[in-house]
Write a structure and sequence with these properties.
Elements (H helix, E strand, L loop, with lengths): L7 E3 H4 L7 E4 L5 E3 H12 L7 E4 L4 H13 L3 E4 L5 H10 L3 E5 L8 E3 L14 E3 L3 E6 L9 E5 H14 L8 E4 L6 H12 L4 E3 L6 H9 L5 E4 L1 H8 L10 E4 L6 H11 L3 E7 L3 E6 L8 E2 L3 E6 L2 E6 L6 E3 L1 E5 L5 E6 L3 E4 L2 E4 H9 L6 E6 L5 E6 L4 H8 L12 E3 L13 H15 L1
Parallel strand pairs: 2-12, 4-5, 4-6, 5-9, 6-7, 11-12, 11-13, 13-14, 14-15, 26-27
Antiparallel strand pairs: 1-8, 2-3, 9-10, 15-16, 16-17, 18-19, 19-20, 21-22, 23-24, 25-26
Helix pairs in contact: 2-3, 5-6, 8-9
């Protein structure tokens, strides 16, 4: 982690001229101003345990954000796990000495500090200063490519990233409400739920709708909202029979959409779809509208470049270059296309293919709800699918789209794939599922 120079600034200075503007819209219809939000956080900060780290498990989006800011004001660090499995939380509590859980849902954990609206009594006090160069939260990668990594970020990084994103996406001076299906513990969810709203005129809805009908009902209650979502949720919405006419803009991240699905989303919602490129390590740093161009446009000041066999991103909100796990093709103008992960390329019979591309082809089949390719012992490929179709029908549908050497030698039908809340495959759970299937078939 890069050492940052301490730089203190008063919160009232950061939000001057905006304290009376809306920050969050509750499901009840109540509007919470930015001044109320800061006052709630200050009140809660004075009640928190005297510890070093807080694991923020809050499900209500507003309570999550109040807790996040309260921890910062208490000069503690928020831990944001990739999932809320008991094993994950137990590991964090053991790894980070002096940590406790912040939750709005009661459990049996003795390290839990339960928060609710009864604790959010505004106090009459000047808003304090904060060190914008200090690490304020640690996020953890999803584990989709291996062991989760801990990534620390500062207020200064979040603020500059938010300002660049708002400008790049054309959201400056837009006084509209965001409805998000993304958990706020995820970097994409944290950026869009808290920091993008703080440094713009946007408002965030405190809900986290999951199923298409829940998403539709929430959107229908608002005038021309913006939907912040993921490819997994958007695919479900496209295949539903709901009315999506109220949406003014759709934002998507966590994985690139296929050009086919992106076109279907725009047609179904009758609204533009902007995708956001980024990672836990980098935060968001590029965007595209696939309907216009498949190329990604970096935010102002961001550069993507190659050194030997590695790709780096630098500039903008990044204090130092960050190495990326993907391969890219970069144009003279600085735009880029993603060619898949460095570890994604497979070779069979002298031929090459990308697992990401094979998975995209598999999941685009009309009869397949979800699916993923994986390597087997002989170097060939097999596939897990969520589908009621016959295995022979799935292979027959794949034949026109991929080379014969990459066709799955076995197709295993499962009820669901191990994905996290944002739709990413959890590698450790996938490996265990494959082992269990191999025991049954051996």
């Amino acid at each position: 982690m890069t050492t940052q120079t301490a730089q203190f600034i008063y919160l009232s200075e950061i939000f001057q001229h905006k304290l009376d503007k809306p920050f969050c819209l509750l499901s009840s219809g109540r509007v919470i101003s930015r001044a109320d939000f800061l006052a709630h956080a200050l009140s809660l900060s004075q009640q928190l345990p005297a510890q070093s780290y807080a694991i923020n498990l809050c499900q209500d989006r507003y309570l999550f954000m109040v807790a996040y800011l309260a921890v910062l004001l208490r000069e503690q660090i928020t831990l944001l796990p990739a999932n809320q499995a008991p094993k994950t939380i137990k590991h964090l509590l053991a790894t980070y000495q002096g940590s406790y859980c912040l939750s709005d849902v009661k459990s049996a954990d003795e390290n839990e500090f339960l928060i609710g609206w009864d604790l959010l009594t505004p106090v009459k006090s000047d808003f304090p200063s904060i060190d914008i160069g200090r690490a304020i939260s640690i996020s953890f990668t999803s584990g989709s490519t291996g062991e989760p990594k801990a990534i620390a970020k500062t207020w200064a990084e979040f603020q500059l990233s938010a300002e660049l994103a708002i400008a790049a996406l054309g959201l400056k001076n837009k006084a509209v409400t965001l409805v998000s299906t993304v958990p706020p513990q995820h970097m994409y969810g944290l950026e869009t739920s808290l920091f993008w709203v703080l440094f713009s005129d946007l408002t965030i809805h405190n809900s986290r709708p999951f199923y298409p009908e829940d998403i539709r009902v929430t959107l229908q209650s608002l005038p021309e909202p913006i939907l912040v979502s993921t490819p997994t949720h958007l695919k479900s919405c496209v295949h539903s029979h709901s009315d999506w006419s109220r949406v003014s803009l759709i934002l998507s991240s966590t994985a690139p959409l296929s050009l086919e699905l992106a076109a279907k989303v725009e047609q179904r919602f009758n609204a533009p779809l902007l995708e956001i490129y980024g990672s836990t390590e980098t935060m968001s740093f590029a965007t595209r509208r696939a309907h216009v161009s498949p190329l990604w446009q970096p935010y102002q000041g961001i550069q993507l470049y190659q050194q030997q066999d590695k790709f780096f991103v630098s500039g903008g909100h990044l204090s130092e270059p960050v190495v990326l796990d993907d391969n890219f093709e970069i144009t003279d103008s600085g735009c880029f296309s993603n060619l898949g992960r460095t570890t994604d390329l497979i070779k069979i019979g002298g031929k090459r293919a990308s697992l990401t591309e094979l998975n995209r082809i598999l999941t685009q089949l009309p009869a397949v709800e979800d699916g993923v390719f994986f390597k087997v012992k002989n170097g060939r490929l097999a596939a897990l699918v969520v589908s009621s179709a016959l295995k022979s029908e799935i292979i027959a549908a794949l034949k026109p789209a991929i080379d014969a050497v990459f066709l799955p030698r076995m197709v295993y039908q499962v009820n669901k794939l191990p994905r996290n809340d944002t739709g990413k495959i959890i590698k450790s759970e996938l490996e265990q599922l494959i082992k269990d299937l191999n025991r049954v078939t051996d």
